[in-house]
Structure formats: structure tokens, C-alpha cells
Amino acid sequence: MTIRYTIERIDGGYRATCEELGVEAMGPTVDRAVSSLRRALEERMAHVEAVAPPEAPVIVRVDLQQKIPDSKRGAA
């Protein structure tokens, strides 16, 4: 599964945001913010609301792809 995210610089580091799923994470570097976002997404997807818990642990692999805002496309 590939999920798109945006990255922005904030005071003290970076924020990685997946707007489609309403998940964000922060870190002191881009790599740490993206890594934290990946973990947050995997955690969220592994805990789907259900009547009964799954019989086996759910393992979700998330591939992230940086989303380039339309305002920055073609700007060279």
C-alpha cells in the first residue's frame, strides 16, 4: 500500500502529514519525521475498529510517497 504525505519545516524540526488519513508525526529531521509517520500509520491500520479482535496479529507494511504540492510543480 502506498500512501502520500507532505513534509514541512516547523520550529524545532519537521512535520510529516498524511491528509487522507488524518495522521501526522514530527521529528528533528526529515527522516525521523517520516519514520514516525510510517509507525503511526502502521499502528493505526493494525487497530481497525471491529466487533471481535483478529485471531492473528495484523502486520501492515506502509510505503510512503512524498506528495508535491501543485504550487511547487513546474517551479524551477
Describe this structure in words.
There is one protein chain. The chain has a single domain (about 1-65), classed as Double Stranded RNA Binding Domain (2-Layer Sandwich). It is globular. Strand 2 and strand 3 form a beta hairpin. The protein has about 80 residues and is of the alpha+beta class. Strands 3-2-1-4 form a four-stranded mixed β-sheet, with helices on one face. Helices cover about 20% and strands about 30% of the residues.
How does the helix and strand content classify structurally?
alpha+beta
- Mean pLDDT, nearest integer? 81
Radius of gyration over all CA atoms, rounded: 15 Å
Number of helices: 1
Tell me the strand percentage band. Answer: 25-35%
Helix/strand order: EEEHE
Number of domains: 1
Instruction: Please write the CATH class name.
Output: Alpha Beta
| CATH T-level fold name | Double Stranded RNA Binding Domain
Please summarize the sheet with the most strands: 4 strands, mixed
Approximate helicity band: 10-25%
The coarse silhouette is globular
Q: Which architecture would the CATH scheme give at its second level?
A: 2-Layer Sandwich
Count of extended strands: 4
Low-confidence stretches: none
Termini separation comes to 31 Å
Present the secondary structure layout.
Blueprint: E1 2-10, E2 13-18, E3 23-27, H1 30-46, E4 63-66
Parallel strand pairs: 1-4
Antiparallel strand pairs: 1-2, 2-3
Short key terms for the protein model shown above:
76 residues; alpha+beta; Double Stranded RNA Binding Domain; four-stranded mixed sheet
